Amino acid sequence: MELAGLFPVLAMLVMIAGFYSHSATAAMLAGALALAGIIAFALADRSAPVIFVLVGLAMVSVAALTQPDWWGGTWNAVERGSFVMALYTALSAIRIAAMGSEEILECGRFLAGQRPGLRYIALSIGGHLFGLILMYGSIALLGGLSKASTMRETDPELRRHRLRRMLVAINRGFAATLCWSPLGFSMAITLALVPGASWNNVVLPCAVNALLLIGLGWGLDTLFKPRLSHPAPPRAAPSGKWLRHLRPLLLLLAAIVTGVVLLHNLVGVDVVAAVMTCVPAIAVAWICLQGSLVVGGARRHLSTQVSHFVRRELPSCGNQIVLLFMAAFIGSLGAFMLEPVLPRLGLDLSVLPGWLIVVAMVWLVPLTGQLGMNPILSVSMILPILPAPEVMGVPPAALVAAVTGGWAISGTTSPFTASVMLLGGFAGLPARQLGLRWNGPYALCMGCAISAWVLILIWLI
């Protein structure tokens, strides 16, 4: 089980090498290593979602019987899954480095301890900034600190309302990263599947979605804050300036952005490849810096942390890695199998208005999330069978904004996403109840707002 963690790391390193060598052999080797890792995790971890592996094997069998070029489609799906695994491994490296930093933890405590008037927006922005680096770890970190903060409250009514508003703020702030961040699966996968799309061209339209998610959430929280049966006691805000507490997080983000921009502009690799290169390198440098302050020095600390990452951290995430890989695999292979079937059924999506397809994606991604489909699966299956943006007569940026916006809504409502399940654990509520009851009206408002924005994009661009 411990050695299973080697496969994602090797797949990531080989894939990074392939970005710069443009070698088809590197892509094939990364796919083979990722596939070996999935087999190792599925056999060693009883909590791994083996049902998805069985579904994938069944789909391969059907493809072999019905598609003459089934092997090419199957291996393309393996490479899509290996890309997701490699990106997850790279982002996990920076998460481990960050969680070992006392400055980052103190930043989280500062945000969770804000007075009621600032708490929602502080945690929403904090959830966004932490989410850029820690992914779901941001919810685990801030959610845990928020729960610890509310446990000191003696009034059960006040404690219940305060915890709910804090967790909702963190969740919505994290979900906003899915709209635009090149460090996330949503943007990486959508850019790979939308012809003519690049991060440089979509970042501003998608960032508007993120602002809508945070701003509208703040507005709804302010308008519909719960009424208490008695006034809440005054609470002092934590001491210290915001910039001083947020400085470690902002410096880390600045280092990642600078590295990605330099690689993208000087070497010419795309933004996602630059992210996958820079993030592990910065994680290693940060761990060495932390090690220079402890007994044993940087080299020993780095060796210990790398060993822990490979032998403990990645194997403990085996079920999540299997789920993400299989979601990408099933989605890609499903699209490959559906593409030749649609014309035989008389379904021609190109006859539909392009604006209608784009708006439909805003709603389709969160709706499929309610049915148990991870957004990686649904997006990987739906986008390849859509007409290209130029055929639909819409700008690629509008389609990307619609997909990532719908992905973000799914991240606040779907009981099958890691973010909602984590929040359910902190709140002590079922994930479905939490997603729909706490965020259902918010999701409807966001769906309407993002739909209006993508229609404006189609008209403007």
UniProtKB/TrEMBL annotation:
The alphabetical list of record keywords is: Membrane, Transmembrane, Transmembrane helix
Q: Does the keyword Nucleotidyltransferase apply?
A: no
**Could you name the domain of life of the organism this protein comes from?**
Bacteria
Q: Which residues cross the membrane?
A: 46-65, 118-145, 166-193, 199-220, 249-267, 273-296, 317-338, 350-369, 381-401, 407-429, 441-460
Q: Is Signal given among the entry's keywords?
A: no
What is the name of this protein?
H+/citrate symporter
What does the record give as the organism's lineage? Bacteria, Pseudomonadati, Pseudomonadota, Alphaproteobacteria, Rhodobacterales
